[in-house]
Amino acid sequence: MGVRLDPSDEYMHELGPESNFNESMYINCFDPTHQVGGWFRIGNRANEGYAEMTVCLYLPDGKVGFMFKRPNIDNNDAFDAGGLTWTMVKPFEELRIDYVGKVVLLDDPLQMATPKEAFTNNPYAECEVHITFTGQGKPSMFGGEPDEPHETPGEEFAKGHYEQLVEAHGSIRVGDQEWQIAGCGLRDHSWGPRYWQAPWYYRWLTANFGKDLGFMASRVAKKDGPGTRGGFVWDGGKMHYCDHVEVSTEFEGDDTYHQRITGLLKSSRSDREWNFTGEVMNLIPLRNRRQDPEGNWLVTRISEGMTRWTMASGEHQGAVGYGLSEYLDQIIDDKPVGINE
């Protein structure tokens, strides 16, 4: 199966006919010196009349600054909604995000498990984010749009999807505190029909150990079927495509949030493997709900953990990096379905 990725894919795609057509951009970053970072996302759902806009900031004192909005949109012409704007400067090499608005300040980010209470019972602060992200060109890109459909109708999560490790430089201001950002992160861009309820569960891990070493590991489970395992390692200017991923997790608390991670990435093409461990530094749980045709509420939890990673073997053994561990689970009988992975 071939995969296409052109410079034009860095811009907006034609709005599809599907009611749940989604085009989204996501990016994360972390500054290890100031111990501050975050992630940002806009998902355009123009056929449903709104965008999903999220800003999530992990602050040095353990607080999380967070904002989620569903601003009205009627087209898929740009990523510009709810105070968050994306500007593509040069495909595969440079883009910029700008956010001006408020964030709710969470002393205990786990409060976001019940969003209404979290937004009602916590203070707000004015916020500005201006960050430029740079990448190392097309050789550092992973993914694209397959030339044949790869998802079962009704279970689509993205028609096209690609990712890239990036550097980040700019500023984050929350209230009267401001940080100059110099770090690394990962971005992704996807388009096509999407329901958050399509995967049974997934584990999506992103890590940067400086601009010349990082990885993405993905384990997606289907309710019926084996799902997928894959990812990549960017190592010294070379992309290693990984066809096998193993992830084991230690969970904590009555609500079962991930805390410690042990993982393995293997590339049969490169005949190499990379072992790593992760320790979640701060985590915020998010929720998506959708009614099925019978009127039942389907509940999906997406736990976002800013994570400290350590390479556990090989020539990079002992290297320390940072990134996100995103755990999506459908919630059945008040429990995440993927805790036995």
Question: Which key terms come to mind for this protein?
Answer:
single chain, 341 residues, mainly beta, AttH-like fold, eight-stranded antiparallel β-barrel, 22 strands, 61% strand, globular, DUF7064, DUF7065
Summarize the topology.
Layout: E1 3-4, E2 21-31, E3 36-45, E4 50-58, E5 64-69, E6 80-81, E7 84-90, E8 94-106, H1 115-121, E9 124-134, E10 141-146, E11 160-174, E12 177-193, E13 201-208, E14 213-221, E15 228-235, E16 238-242, E17 244-252, E18 257-267, E19 272-291, E20 297-311, E21 320-332, E22 335-336
Antiparallel strand pairs: 1-10, 2-3, 2-12, 3-4, 4-5, 5-8, 6-7, 7-8, 8-9, 9-11, 10-11, 11-12, 13-14, 13-21, 14-15, 15-16, 17-18, 18-19, 19-20, 20-21, 21-22
Folded structure, characterized:
The chain is mainly β and 341 residues long. The chain folds into two domains: 17-195, AttH-like fold, CATH 2.40.370; 199-341. 2% of the residues lie in helices and 61% in strands. The strands form two sheets. Strands 13, 14, 15, 16, 17, 18, 19, 20, 21 and 22 form a ten-stranded antiparallel sheet that branches. An eight-stranded antiparallel β-barrel has the order 2-3-4-5-8-9-11-12. It is globular and about 50 Å long. The two termini are 28 Å apart.
